[in-house]
Amino acid sequence: MSIANAIILGLVQGLAEFLPISSSGHLSILNNLFGMTTTADGHLFFDVLLHLGTLLSVCIVYWEDIVAMFFEVLGFVNIGPLAGERRARYPAARLFFMIVLATIPLFLILPIKDMLERLYYNNFFIGVALVLTGCTLYVSDKMKEGGKTVGGMSVWDALIIGLCQCVAVIPGLSRSGTTITAGIATGLKRDFAVKFAFLMSIPSVLGANILSIGDAAREGIDWSLMPAYLVGMAVAMISGILAISLLKQIAARGRFGGFAYYCWVVGALTVILTMIF
Fold it and tell me: Considering the entire predicted model, what is its pTM?
């Protein structure tokens, strides 16, 4: 694992995690077609650090929302259900509970976690999944924007978005693209759908890292590669911040079509290269 390799993988992780183009799909392509790896050859700990870098990206960009959720939840503990006037009084606390609800469906994938991880090495499947991601983004551009923010969200809205996040665990499907599209489909405002999609990534990425850290420890960590690992993590964090900021601007204009065409091209090329080689 060279520093140049780590920089490229960190850049891909940071950009593709938040831009709706599937970080798992792109890392899989780099691994399977170009021999640049994260989880194989003893680099599982590096994969954990890359995801930690993107987790820090979300925390930095949405730090004010995270702090507001923390303090409002603490102040809300003895008040009762978030209903009626309390929705307006405690919007950050309500946002927190909606994120919790949206995270619950992820437990459904635990029994098939190993099977999904094996798909990471199937180039043909990754290519098809990227094409489907492009279709999802194309459809999102055609949807009429809703007007709901956290006060108008229902339990069912959160659960539907959470179920779509479960589907997006499949390598090659974009988690951000799928959950943003689901949010728009449930009637959320486009910019709020983006915020909700990124904030709900915090528990999912944190949970995945917790599950992976044990495997990484058992696999063993090559401490001589730690400088390269840390550089990759830093690049993932910085590029993640830039990607979130860019997608927020794009969401304000309401156009994800460019990413759809990109996913179609990359997906089709991956399928073609797989069939040739």
Answer: 0.88
